[in-house]
Amino acid sequence: MKKINLTFKALFLLYACGIAPLILFCGILSVFGTKVIYVNGNPVVGINGFISAIFFIPLFSLIMTALSWMLLRFGYFIYGLCFKNAMHHVEPYEDDILI
Asked: Looking at the domain assignment, is residue 43 inside a domain?
């Protein structure tokens, strides 16, 4: 089994690719007048709603990445305290894809 290297960059790209279809769908609905995009509590429709949706993709990805990365690092730290003998550094193979 290959070791998965979840760096901050990899997490960000995974969240961005995962949330982009949903937010783009909301942006397309906003172009047709549906009130699904809110900025400062006000609905934004039309092309402004679509542009706002585009800006939400990196914003949501960054927030989710930061929270996940901090929690994973904390969990890794706790795991290291509890299972010191189970933790060991694994050097990546040359054929591994590191992002």
From this structure: yes
Report the predicted TM-score, pTM, of the whole model to 2 decimal places: 0.71
| Burial status of residue 61 (CB atoms within 10 A of its CB: 0-12, 13-18, 19 or more) | buried
Q: What is the pLDDT of residues 16-62, one digit of tens each?
A: 999 999 999 999 999 999 999 999 999 999 999 999 999 999 999 99
Range of the domain at 12: 8-82
Q: Backbone phi, then psi, for 61, in 5-degree steps?
A: -65, -40
CA dist 98 to 5, 45, 56, 87, Å? 7, 40, 27, 20
Report residue 44 CA to chain centroid gap: 24
Residues 6+ apart with CB under 8 A from 20: 57
Is 37 in contact with 49 (CB distance < 8 Å)?
yes
